[in-house]
Amino acid sequence: MFQSVVARTGLLCLALTSLSAVALAQAKIAVINLQKAVIESNEIKKASVALEAKFRPRQQELEKLSQEIERIQQTLQTGQGKLSPQGEADLNAEGTRKQTSLTRKTEDLQKDVDAERNEILAKSSKQMQEVVAKLAAEKGYDVVVDVSTTVFFKPALEITTDAIAAYNTAYPAK
Length: 174
Hints:
Layout: H1 2-25, E1 29-32, H2 34-39, H3 42-78, H4 85-139, E2 143-146, H5 160-170
Helix pairs in contact: 3-4, 4-5
């Protein structure tokens, strides 16, 4: 009797192991470079150009301010010994004021650019994940893994290009 129970348990374990191996063998897996897919989408390319154009005037203002600071430094260097103490103090004060302004404006610009870029990327990343889920359903993938979490995969498993094409169709650049 005991041998019969052991035999049945052994057969059950063997059957379950075989079924789990079959289930794993049938899983369809795809790999995507999600970051690349988002960045190479037409919408992000267009948003990048628009973002650059939007902030170009402020960038040019910073470049102009930087040139003014350089001119003040050159005047101080070439005028050493020729400038009055008051003239030198005035130039130093003006240079310090402009350098402070440049630093503040640079930080403000960077903060504004980062905030807008992050907002755009967050929206596009969410939309890309929706597109990938739809693509996976259409192609019968059980799992889609990001390339950043994989050590090795066969190139045939990558669906990044398909995801970009599907995204560009679902969300055309406006």
